[in-house]
Design a protein that fits this description.
globular; 2 strands
C-alpha cells in the first residue's frame, strides 16, 4: 500500500487551516530529525521509509484535543492525542506499526504505572516506544514544539531532559538513554 502522509492528514484537517500548517511543519521537522538520527545508527538497520512516513503521522490525533495555543478545539485533554491518533490510523487500515508510533510517542512514552499514578485519562496499558523506529521518532519529536511562538526553536538535549524530568523522572531517564544510544 502506497502511503502519502500529507494526503492522510488532509483526510482529517482542512488544508487551508492554521492547524494543518502547524501540524505539517512540525511533523516535517520531526521526520527530518528522525531520519538524521536513523542515519547515525544505520548499523542497526532502521526502516528509513517507515520512519519518514510514521514521523509525519505521529501527531495526527491532535485535532481531537483541546489545546487553544495551537488551534485544537477538540474535547479530549492533549495527553490523549497519541492513542486517539492510533485509533485514526488503525481505522484507515494502515499497518499497525503506524498507530503504535502515534500512541507511544507522548512524553518519552507513558507507562501503565504513570497512567494509574497520575490518573491520566488514557487506556490502561503501557504506551512506551518499543521498536528502534518508535524510539527514534519519539526522541526526535522532543526537539520541536508545535507552539507558533517556538516553531523555529530547536530544543537542546539538556532542556528536553529538564522538561521531561518535571513531567516524570522516568521520562527523562528513558529519553537520556535513547539520546546516549543515538549519540545526541
Amino acid at each position: 500500500m502506497k502511503i502519502d502522509p500529507v494526503e492522510i492528514i488532509r483526510q482529517f484537517y482542512d488544508s487551508d487551516s492554521t492547524l494543518f500548517a502547524i501540524l505539517v511543519e512540525h511533523s516535517t521537522k520531526v521526520a527530518e530529525k528522525s531520519l538524521e538520527i536513523a542515519e547515525g545508527v544505520a548499523h542497526l538497520n532502521p526502516d528509513m521509509d517507515f520512519i519518514e512516513k510514521a514521523a509525519m503521522l505521529h501527531d495526527i490525533g491532535i485535532f481531537k484535543t483541546s489545546s487553544p495555543k495551537i488551534g485544537c478545539a477538540g474535547k479530549y485533554p492533549y495527553v490523549c492525542h497519541g492513542y486517539l491518533g492510533r485509533e485514526l490510523l488503525d481505522g484507515l487500515g494502515l499497518s499497525r506499526e503506524f498507530g503504535l508510533v502515534s500512541e507511544r510517542h507522548t512524553g518519552a512514552g507513558i507507562t501503565l504505572e504513570n497512567i494509574i499514578e497520575a490518573d491520566l485519562p488514557l487506556p490502561h496499558r503501557d504506551m512506551v516506544p518499543v521498536t528502534l523506529e518508535e524510539k527514534i521518532i519519539c526522541c526526535a519529536d522532543k526537539f520541536y514544539s508545535k507552539s507558533p511562538k517556538k516553531v523555529d526553536h530547536v530544543m537542546t538535549r539538556k532542556k528536553i531532559e529538564k522538561k521531561l524530568a518535571k513531567l516524570n523522572p522516568g521520562h527523562a531517564k528513558r529519553f537520556s538513554a535513547w539520546a546516549d544510544e543515538f549519540n545526541l
